[in-house]
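Suppose you are handed a protein chain with no further information: no name, no annotation, nothing but its sequence. What can you learn? This example shows the usual starting point.
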Amino acid sequence: MDNRVDVTIPVDAEAAKAPESRARREAVGRYLSSLLKGGRARDVLAGAIAEAKREARAHRLTEEEIDAELDEWRAERQA
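A reasonable first move is to predict its three-dimensional structure. Written in structure tokens, the prediction is:
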């Protein structure tokens, strides 16, 4: 049984070029579906954030500087 549905998700212009072929779109859909099932996307996001913080610390940014950057990013997103 095929229970797939089409959804519209905003992405940046460069990312939108990636799934140009039907095969790539289907592969992206399978990957996204697997991320969203069972809260896995949350785990992937948490891992990405942890990696970004490790990289920032490696560049000698303090926790306060990291938090300030995140606060600025959040403010821009809400504007």
